[in-house]
Amino acid sequence: MSNPKSAPFFNTVGVRFQTSAKVQYFDGSGIELEVGDRVLVETPQGIKEGVIAIAPGQVIFSELRGPMDAVVQKAEA
């Protein structure tokens, strides 16, 4: 049995860009993140700011589709 911390989705986080918007998934890139953290993420439209809505390790694997863009860094307050 593999270690869940080594699974590729362990660092996946759910990010919301607007209060009622759909959650999108990103690679947490080894950054320590918690629900409520503001982050900058890479998107096809460029760098965007969002809020962590689903913490690392809490993402349901079956919801993931294809490669994910990365969290660049935590946003400054």
Characterise the protein shown here.
The chain is mainly beta and 77 residues long. The chain has one domain (4-74). The protein contains no helices and five strands. It has strands at residues 12-16, 24-27, 38-43, 46-54, 71-74. It has a five-stranded antiparallel β-sheet, with no helix packed on it. Strand 1 (12-16) and strand 2 (24-27) form a beta hairpin.
Tell me about the biggest sheet? Answer: 5 strands, antiparallel
Q: End-to-end span in angstroms? A: 41 Å
The Cα radius of gyration reads 12 Å
How much strand content do the residues show?
A: 35-45%
Order of helices and strands: EEEEE
Number of domains: 1
Q: Structural class of the secondary structure composition?
A: mainly beta
- Residue stretches low in confidence (pLDDT < 50, at least 5 long) are 1-6
The beta-strand count equals 5
Helix content: under 10%
Mean pLDDT: 83
Shape descriptor reads globular
The largest sheet has its strands arranged as 2-1-4-3-5
Number of helices: 0
Blueprint of the fold:
Blueprint: E1 12-16, E2 24-27, E3 38-43, E4 46-54, E5 71-74
Antiparallel strand pairs: 1-2, 1-4, 3-4, 3-5
Quick summary:
The protein has no helices and five strands. By secondary structure, it is mainly beta.
